[in-house]
């Protein structure tokens, strides 16, 4: 699931829990789902991999993907 | 006047027919000025029914007639308007039937900022009429693009600014760069190709076209109609980050989002991981809080129900009490009614008693009956010597009739 989807679902769950008309069992299920979504988002935040590439043409004019060296200085 | 006679060779005169002279002039003109650039101001421009453009080029001292044939019109980057200062490329020719020479224009370039503005306005109008500039067709930028496609020059500040700010916000982002020239005639075509190539990678979810500031001439490539169309038809949203002080470019207007600088563009397409982590923390807290509150509400509900829920023995006792009470009320009312009935009976008995013949006897009257029990009401009912019974208040007499007197 994409980060923003997970976040949207999480918001919906919090909203649902704020409403009083959810049976307790349902509420607990939603909470459990919400916690899973938070873990998922944390995973996405931590797992992403930095990558900068540049498309360059080789001698025959074919495009080649290459690492692009970038330092912040 | 004879001497001036037409074609008289004796006078050693070289006499041309109009056609001959015109033909000579035509070849002279065309030889001397095969292809030339002419600078001037447009006036009297009009379009003919068959699609050719006629206008004049003028300056303070002279006027030159010009025509642009229909086949060359696609080369025109803007609509010709009177007053426009332009540079025309073409050849000189002479139209014999009219004896007029004119510039056969193949290419027109605007000169100066005014022309640039005009070209921009015209292209803008055209694209707007097609709906390409409508806000409604602009797509939202992805929240966290898998890969950001960057179209820019590898030389210059734009790429550096963009990547520096971008990776500060999201140190784990992924960027795919397609290097292009961002100025000069080749630039639009290279940028168009970059849009096609980058958007063909499924992971590239947003494109950023970036260049640093520049003069309006530097920005000419970004007012290219083909580029505008490539941006409009790009399968992924495009951010235009063409930094400049003057008006917006067509590229800005067609793009799904416009950033004033490459730095601002980076802020648009790189989500800040720190901010995300912070917001996620808030969400988790909200989640915990809402569950806690939910549990609290459930507990209160339970307590309320508990209060309303009663011991069944208590209920039985209450019922019994109620039955007792009813029974008492029933007894009381039953007794009362019994008494009423009794009273009524007694009074009836009294009434009855007062009417009874026995009561009359008590007052001194008597009843005479035959032995058969028949009550005697008239003297003629009996015969002398008959035995009769007389009922008194106390006791009874048996008597014999001595004599009968019938009135």
Automatic annotation (TrEMBL), chain A:
GO terms for cellular component: cytosol; exodeoxyribonuclease VII complex. It comes from Thermodesulfatator autotrophicus. Transmembrane segments: none annotated. Belongs to the XseB family. This is Exodeoxyribonuclease 7 small subunit. Heterooligomer composed of large and small subunits. Its EC number is 3.1.11.6. The keyword Repeat does not apply. The keyword Hydrolase applies. It holds the Pfam family Exonuc_VII_S. Gene3D superfamilies: Exonuclease VII, small subunit (1.10.287.1040). Bidirectionally degrades single-stranded DNA into large acid-insoluble oligonucleotides, which are then degraded further into small acid-soluble oligonucleotides. The gene is xseB. It is an enzyme of class 3 (hydrolase). GO terms for molecular function: exodeoxyribonuclease VII activity. GO terms for biological process: DNA catabolic process. It is found in: Cytoplasm. It catalyses: Exonucleolytic cleavage in either 5'- to 3'- or 3'- to 5'-direction to yield nucleoside 5'-phosphates.
TrEMBL record, chain B:
Bidirectionally degrades single-stranded DNA into large acid-insoluble oligonucleotides, which are then degraded further into small acid-soluble oligonucleotides. It catalyses: Exonucleolytic cleavage in either 5'- to 3'- or 3'- to 5'-direction to yield nucleoside 5'-phosphates. The keyword Hydrolase applies. One of its GO terms (cellular component) is cytoplasm. CDD domains: ExoVII_LU_OBF. It comes from Thermodesulfatator autotrophicus. This is Exodeoxyribonuclease 7 large subunit. Belongs to the XseA family. The lineage of its organism: Bacteria, Pseudomonadati, Thermodesulfobacteriota, Thermodesulfobacteria, Thermodesulfobacteriales. It comes from the Bacteria. Residues 16-109 form the OB-fold nucleic acid binding domain. Residues 288-355 form a coiled coil. GO terms for biological process: DNA catabolic process. Its main location: cytoplasm.
